[in-house]
């Protein structure tokens, strides 16, 4: 399968039932909504998919479900993380479940040195058996020299930037031009035009989870969505800790499929924020309807 990550990809949420258990039926229904919208790829069990809340068995089941629903029509990447030993276990589970590649989330807790980050990726590449994408954010921040080394590791294909330092990113792109770069900031649409100006046009879209028509309309150039939907969404997202995940999951639940609540330590949005979310979603959909009329 040819991996083309030069346009919008889907980062689905992971469904739980009322008791907090993995719920595969609504998860697969959610995946079908995502697939029907035509993303470039599915990224299962990543940040929006609450990778950090899943057991290894739950993770394997969710990745298998994503692979089954995609049915070879587009690539499925799975998130992996924690320290090197645990990341290897998740990588093995993803490979056995049929994933096409891996998004490597930052290591848990510690802030590693540049050498430590490179050793981590070399160890994963040696055993994973799947293409790897590095996710730069939080405690996994690379230098340009390190990205040049990273790009030489067999199996490294991409670099997802969640830092937002465009000067640094340009220097990385200059020394490692063969990697596929994409914007991984929260509500990436807000910074998409800035990234595109330096040649990074692909980005991850949490909005795709609950309003793919809005996500694709903005990708297609409907600029009115920025002031009318995306900027207000960022203001709403910033009203609660963890809303980058829980607000998205609430929107999926209210519009499409009952994917359940987030797992602790995350919490669901407050009722007044859900009302704002409903109003904002309708506002965004109205802009799309007018823009495509």
Task: Supply the key terms.
293 residues, alpha/beta, two-stranded parallel sheet, 11 helices, globular
In round numbers, the mean pLDDT is 95
In what order do the strands lie side by side in the largest sheet?
Answer: 2-3-4-5-6-7
Q: Tally the helices.
A: 11
Low-confidence stretches: none
What is the string of helix and strand elements?
A: EHEHEHEHEHEHEHEHHHH
Q: What shape does the CA trace take?
A: globular
Instruction: Indicate the radius of gyration in whole angstroms.
Output: 18 Å
Could you tell me how far the N terminus lies from the C terminus, measured between alpha carbons in angstroms? 36 Å
Number of strands: 8
- Structural class comes to alpha/beta
Kindly estimate the percentage of residues that lie in beta strands according to DSSP.
5-15%
Helicity range of the residues? 40-55%
Biggest sheet descriptor: 6 strands, parallel
Describe this structure in words.
The chain has 293 residues and is of the alpha/beta class. Helices cover 47% and strands 11% of the residues. Strands 2-3-4-5-6-7 form a six-stranded parallel β-sheet. It has a two-stranded parallel sheet with strand order 1-8.
Strand and helix map with partners:
Layout: E1 9-10, H1 24-36, E2 42-44, H2 56-70, E3 76-80, H3 84-97, E4 101-104, H4 114-128, E5 132-136, H5 144-150, E6 156-161, H6 166-175, E7 180-183, H7 189-197, E8 204-205, H8 212-219, H9 225-237, H10 243-255, H11 271-292
Parallel strand pairs: 1-8, 2-3, 3-4, 4-5, 5-6, 6-7
């Amino acid at each position: 399968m040819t991996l083309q990550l030069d346009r919008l990809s889907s980062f689905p949420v992971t469904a739980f039932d009322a008791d907090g258990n993995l719920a595969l039926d609504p998860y697969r229904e959610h995946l079908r909504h995502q697939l029907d919208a035509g993303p470039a790829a599915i990224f299962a069990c990543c940040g929006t998919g609450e990778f950090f809340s899943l057991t290894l068995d739950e993770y394997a089941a969710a990745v298998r479900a994503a692979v089954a629903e995609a049915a070879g029509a587009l690539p499925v990447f799975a998130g992996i993380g924690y320290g090197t030993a645990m990341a290897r276990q998740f990588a093995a589970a993803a490979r056995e479940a049929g994933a096409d590649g891996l998004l490597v989330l930052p290591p848990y807790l510690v802030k590693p040195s540049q050498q430590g980050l490179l050793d981590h990726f070399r160890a994963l590449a040696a055993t994973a058996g799947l293409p790897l994408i590095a996710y730069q954010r939080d405690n996994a921040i690379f230098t340009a020299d390190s990205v040049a080394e990273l790009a030489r590791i067999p199996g490294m294909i991409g670099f997802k930037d969640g830092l937002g330092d465009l000067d640094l990113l340009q220097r990385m792109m200059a020394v490692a031009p063969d990697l596929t770069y994409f914007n991984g900031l929260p509500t990436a649409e807000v910074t998409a035009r800035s990234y595109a100006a330096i040649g990074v046009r692909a980005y991850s879209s949490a909005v795709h989870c609950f309003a793919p028509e809005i996500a694709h309309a903005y990708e297609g150039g409907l600029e009115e969505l920025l002031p009318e939907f995306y900027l207000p969404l960022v203001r709403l997202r910033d009203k609660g800790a963890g809303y980058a995940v829980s607000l998205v999951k609430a929107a999926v639940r209210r519009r499409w499929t009952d994917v359940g609540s987030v797992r602790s330590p995350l919490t669901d949005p407050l009722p007044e924020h859900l009302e704002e979310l409903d109003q904002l979603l309708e506002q965004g959909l109205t802009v799309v309807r007018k823009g495509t009329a």
